Amino acid sequence: MEKTTYSLKCDRSNSQEYYETIREFTNSVWTQAETTLVPIAAKYREYLKLHKLEPLREMEEYVLELLSFGVLWNVYAETALAVKHAPFITMAHLAEWRKKHQRAKPYIDVARGIVTTLCLLPEPNSKLRALTPSLEKIDHVCKWFEATGEFKEQALRFILWRAFWQTKAPAALHDVFYTIGAFAEWFEIQAVEKIGKYTENVESFRKQSGKQYRWREDRISCMRSRVEYHLNMVGAELMNRAFRRDYEKTETKVVLLPGCMRAHVDDGCKAERVQEGLLCAGCQPDCRVNQIKEMGKKKKFAVYVIPHASDLSLWGPRPGQPTRGVVASACVTTLVEGGWELKRYDVPAQCVLLDSSGCKKHWHREGFATQLNLGELRRLLNPA
What we know:
- This protein is an alpha/beta fold and 384 residues long.
- The protein is 55% helix and 8% strand.
- Helix 2 crosses helix 3 and helix 4 packs antiparallel against helix 5.
- It is globular.
């Protein structure tokens, strides 16, 4: 089978070793963060509490935001700052419209692909390398993040951090950015050593497939750098820890699966279409979606198949309805963004990564039914 970018199985029969490895590596990331990022996050929490800007969240989530800022700044700041004029607001609106208007989505995606390549992804400028963050540069980069449609949740969080950083004296702010940058560099090196075997094909995929994504709306999502895969792997684990307490308080549980997990797609799948997505009809016993649905009957959780870029606001709390906790599965490049979006809609979520990416639309010429680790799914569904 043709490989895509990552594999949690690494030629093994299942991905259990990956989950043991990622928990161990996340523990080491947290240990490193305790003396570097946690003090910054603690002062940020004090700022949020003083000004009553948001309900306080778990420290793991704030640390993930800082790590994300450091990694994404290194990857994208040069490109974003090279964009002087672009329809930032229109692009951000298009990214939201494609979620809410599924029938128009193919046409919106064509427009987004063209405008993204023409306006948001200029040729690299070597003079802009090694940029140190500043408040003005952060403003511009956050506009670029939101316009891409791939980093809206990160942009919303970075903007709030930016307001906090504005209260700092220049020398103190320099120290903050130095600490974040140094941590991001440490993370990039350590991640290759500790979890790099799961992402060995990322760079070769980028080189071999780059041209075919040039005018596509999924160009940025599918051309993610290797360090971004590692960021999202650790991010999913940190997110699970941060959201676990609220998730366990919910009255009902729902599992959200991607369309690429079905044994048949399009006309071959007999699933019933409802507002929230697709309900499996059980047409094929060996379909992984059907197997998880049968598990749900015994364990009392519902299963929905949702397309990529769905309107996740549909899962928000409803008056008079039981509170719902969500376990969502997706590929590495999209799962953390989705988890943060669910959090914005007040939905406590847990994450299970797909063992590999295999959908025909985005990743694989022929496409194949993707899988997830059922043991990890059971672990997240069961109370601690």
